[in-house]
Amino acid sequence: MAEKFMVGGAPFFYEAGEVGCLLVHGFTGTPSSLRPMGEFLADNNITVLGVRLSGHGTNVEDMHNCSYKDWISSAEEGLQELKKYCQYIYIAGLSMGGSLSLHLAYHYPEAIKGVIPICAPVFMNDPKMKLVPFLKYFVKTVPAIGGNLKDPEAEEITYDKTSVPAIHQLIQLLDIVKKELPSIYQPALIFASLEDAVVSPQNASYIYNNIGSSLKELVWLENSYHVATLDYDKELIFKKTLKFINEGL
To answer: Has this prediction a pTM greater than 0.90?
Structure first.
């Protein structure tokens, strides 16, 4: 039986030429958070695939049994699909999607020409995260982390609760990505929101300072919260991403 997606939770694909960009959404989110970015890039002759990560876009219980390896596999499947249509591929991701983008850039250096992490974590500062490996056996969900937007007219399609077992998987993923940074050499365009209440902006500085890329830029977003691809700075992100892709060809 086909999976039942949340309204707006399905993946998307826009074919527009031999240059492609894989878009990877964040933890508890859906491809919808990157759909406006995908539409903008497609309107400017970039083929776009917005993947749906395993356990996302259906119901929060589906995340309980997902591992970070499942999320990696979802992103890898998207990359392989995009390779059928495109000769040149870039990868961009929001939040955990940015972390996954960095991970794929590390593992597929020949396939991925550049990486665009947006409000992406490689570590978490919250001391409570140390309790998660034990808490997951007693508490399955905690309040939602999604929907951190400055624009009151914007809305993120995301779960209304957060899976605690999945948080443990996220922590493990970030530990891996953090170690991979020095061996990522593709050009990198890094975005971070100064008012991000979900991912500490310190992550962006850490990524910029530790990634192995010789060509790299850190862009500070001054009028957005965490879900920046739907917030007030979205057009800045879209335009700078397009410029980054076009200049890399």
So the answer is: yes
